[in-house]
Amino acid sequence: MSIGKAASWAGFTAAFLFVISVAALADNSLLNASYDVSRELYKDINPAFAASWKKSANVDVDVKQAHGGSTKQAQAVAEGLEADVVTLNQPTDLDFLAGKGVVSADWRKDFPNGAAPYTTTTVFLVRKGNPKGIKDWDDLVKSGISVVIPNPKTSGNGRYTYLAAWGYAQDKLGSADKAREFVGQLFANVPVFDGGGRGATTTFTQRDIGDVLVTFENEAALISKEVDGKNFEIVYPSLSVEAAPPVAIVKTIVEKRKSAGLAKAYLDFLYSDEAQTIIAKHNFRPRSDAVRKAAGNNFPAIKTFTVEDKIGPWADVQKTHFADGGIYDQVTTKK
């Protein structure tokens, strides 16, 4: 073989080995783009999955996280954030990504329970002793009550609060017009809108703004049970909304990084007994009946409704309530 051919072959071999090594590296790492108040959950899920994968495949895997308001995260992924999977908190965010061709159009069918491995609900976190006597949604529209809620335009947490209040008012007051008036009064009592649920928690607990934080049960439980139970307590309203945070593989990225198998294994793992136990530990309501029963009294009974059953299909809800110029904008625009 001539020197020139040998050099060319050596260069080709080096390039080939480089490509193989990069592919192998890609196959053994994942980025999960998730929502604001799931940080602590995935901090425990990720090493558990890595240990499980090491045991079954004898390969080390590195799972990284990116957190933010759910809708902001969806937008970031659509704009190029190279996440292999998304674990967001609202179907509209995944539908948005499906519309961009980023996740499967049938993402709901790709994993059990509509691709939602757990549920949660919207509750109230109040200051210790509940000095304002807040017991239900009616109390949040009273004059002089300051309510902390993340921005529904950027946060699924805030959007669920809006829909929980709408469903409650529609039931109690008997019409959509009355519900519209009710949520307008509620959001008039919000002094500041943070971009996501964790920002709203900081505003309430650290900046000492507001009489009540409306947030997901898991976030309220994290504060009252594990972080600062001396100063806060949870109030369960008479009716709330069921939130079922969905997951999906980002097909454009896993095709590029050759990580589809690992991404699927990661999301499948969320349904395992091991992961469901971790989910319950972090005060999300697990899908596993056995794990939920083992959790005992950690999940108080609360009457909930689904958005689809009470208010309408998510696509219609998004367009009617949260699109630019929709009802949310109309009731919160100061005249």
What are the key terms here?
single chain; 335 residues; alpha/beta; D-Maltodextrin-Binding Protein, domain 2; 2 domains; 7-stranded mixed sheet; 4-stranded mixed sheet; 17 helices; 11 strands; 51% helix; disordered N terminus
Shape: globular
In terms of structural class, how would the helical and strand content be classed? alpha/beta
Estimated radius of gyration: 22 Å
CATH class of the largest domain: Alpha Beta
Strand percent estimate: 5-15%
CATH architecture of the largest domain: 3-Layer(aba) Sandwich
Amino- and carboxy-terminal Cα gap:
83 Å
Largest sheet, strands/sense/barrel: 7 strands, mixed
Helix coverage percent of residues?
Answer: 40-55%
Oligomer: single chain
Low-confidence spans: pLDDT under 50, at least 5 residues? 1-26
Question: What is the H-and-E element order?
Answer: HEHEHEHHEHEHHHEHEEEHHHEHEHHH
Structural summary, described in words:
The chain is an alpha/beta fold and 335 residues long. It folds into two domains: 3-117 and 245-298, 3-Layer(aba) Sandwich (D-Maltodextrin-Binding Protein, domain 2); 120-243 and 303-332, 3-Layer(aba) Sandwich (D-Maltodextrin-Binding Protein, domain 2), CATH 3.40.190. Helix content is 51%, strand content 15%. The chain is built from 17 helices and eleven strands. Helix 3 (70-78) runs parallel beside helix 4. The longest helix is centred in the first third of the chain and has 25 residues, at 3-27.
